[in-house]
Amino acid sequence: MKSMLIAGCITAAGLSACNTHTTPKAANTFGEDVAFLKQHLQNVIVLKHPDSQSQVVVTGDYQARVMTSTTGGDAGNSYGWINYNLVASHQLNKHINAFGGEERFWLGPEGGQYGLYFPPGKPFDFDNWQTPPLIDTVHYQMVAQSDTSVSYEQSGVLQNYQGSSFPVKINRTVSLLGNEQISSKLGFALPGGINGVAYETSNTVTNTGDSSWQPETGLLSIWLLGMFRPSDQTAIVAPFKGLPNANGYITDDYFGKIAAKNLQVKDSLLLFRADGKNRGKLGLSPVIAKPGAGSIDLEHNTVTVLLYEIVPDGRYVNSKWEIQKEPYKGDAVNCYNDGPIADGSQMGPFYEVESSSAAQPLKPGESMSYRQTTMHFQGDRTAIQALAKELWQLSLDDVQHFLNNK
């Protein structure tokens, strides 16, 4: 069976592990989100940049998670989706605690013979599925902080489906970037009339055990997942290499085939509706995936873009809930649109853009690192059009036409 995980509603055979969530109001500001988090959590850090109104809020309570960000200070739009009900409950759920947040640290694979989310020998079904506490409920210790950066670490032991143990140390740093750094990352100067916020996370996993990690007994990957606010005027954008057989490297049926009205695959660009009303997930193989997946929100004139490393011939773990023929032929990039499940419940609404590192066989004491940069830009329609052209050679009229096709 295809993987049934998506950060939030998890279903199998009609079962649900999600809290029905009601956003406190349609347009809560960054400052309101920060106030809420400080009311309910003990370790909330706000990073601010001196040359702009860009801010990011991070919490060690949720594994050094970036909860949300803004381009406009406390009164600005807040880009991350936060599960207000779960955070305010001060309770922990079975299977997963989907607190939200626009970038969280996870490890893969999920399912399969090397999966980290199932006890050894148990069936790949929902009752046995459990997010490891190290990446779900464990508090990460802050080890360094400045106005624009904060670092955390935590250690623990993971076990995979084969029974292999993985003693690890996790180090994670979140750094808020300035305007010059943003332009350097993009490779071009931002169009006039754009306000931006960007942060880079540096994520390192160290093998602290006394045995080497081997492909035959399982490897780990760093998995970064972002949950964002949807709208009827939002489309996920994912560039890919326009190879003749590119469609063979796109998986669009994780939760059933995505309807044609919700997914457009053309040339070397993919558009995926992000309205939070139609549940679907897709994946891009490292053979065709390119850096720069993100989204365009025509209602608020915002662009989101994620930059990450892809190793075309790397080992990418397979997270499907089955014993796999090709456990290292997984996705490098995933996108998800939330929506009601079979029983009508829904945790969101939200949408996700995710990336994963290649897996590496680490010797004792060796480390692997993975970086990702998340950027949000807001401006008038002309400025956003110029930015979309630079990033993806994409016309906003084409995005509008796609979104109007209902």
Automatic annotation (TrEMBL):
PROSITE patterns: PROKAR_LIPOPROTEIN. It holds the Pfam family DUF6786. It comes from the Bacteria. This is Lipoprotein. The lineage of its organism: Bacteria, Pseudomonadati, Bacteroidota, Chitinophagia, Chitinophagales. It comes from Chitinophaga terrae (ex Kim and Jung 2007).
